[in-house]
Design a protein that fits this description.
With 157 residues, the chain is mainly alpha-helical. 81% of the residues lie in helices and 0% in strands. The model has no long low-confidence stretch (mean pLDDT 92).
Length: 157
């Protein structure tokens, strides 16, 4: 466990947390900063980590959902809930296209973010070349918002 307290360990922890659904970079930036990483480094690592799952979600989630549905009713309910969440958020993307996806991802609140944006893009059958840049831009904006709040909080500590 000593490795986790090293500089590399802190980078990997921050990277890992930024890849986790719901937490994403909105949690990873404060975690990295709280562990002693420079704010800018926490931002960069969190953005990279937050983007890693995106293309995989867009390409594979429909097949994964299909497999999950075939395995049990409980998994089918989980899939139905995730599809309902995507459908709820789809209206913004349908209306504003690229900018709608950016906005959906950029708002650093629960139920938004790169995972949700990628799920919506997959359900809309968006191409990677259209979805990934919008999600990336949204992640950048979310990173700026979270970093501003995080930097402000840690300035008082």
């Amino acid at each position: 466990m000593e490795f986790l307290s090293t500089f590399t360990g802190k980078l990997l922890i921050t990277l890992f947390w930024s890849m986790v659904p719901v937490i994403e970079l909105r949690g990873a930036i404060p975690i990295g900063t709280a562990m002693g990483l420079d704010l800018w480094l926490s931002i960069v690592i969190s953005i990279i980590g937050n983007m890693i799952p995106v293309p995989f979600i867009i390409v594979f989630i429909r097949k994964i959902f299909e497999w999950m549905r075939s395995k049990s009713q409980k998994l089918d309910k989980v899939v139905a809930a995730m599809e309902a969440k995507a459908k709820k958020n789809r209206a913004v993307v349908d209306r504003y296209k690229f900018w709608g996806l950016v906005i959906l991802v950029a708002i650093p609140l629960p139920g938004t973010g790169a995972w949700t944006g990628a799920l919506v893009a997959a359900m809309m059958e968006m191409r990677l070349k259209d979805a990934v840049p919008a999600i990336f831009f949204g992640v950048l904006v979310a990173g700026i918002i979270v970093a501003t709040v995080t930097g402000g909080i840690f300035a008082f500590l």
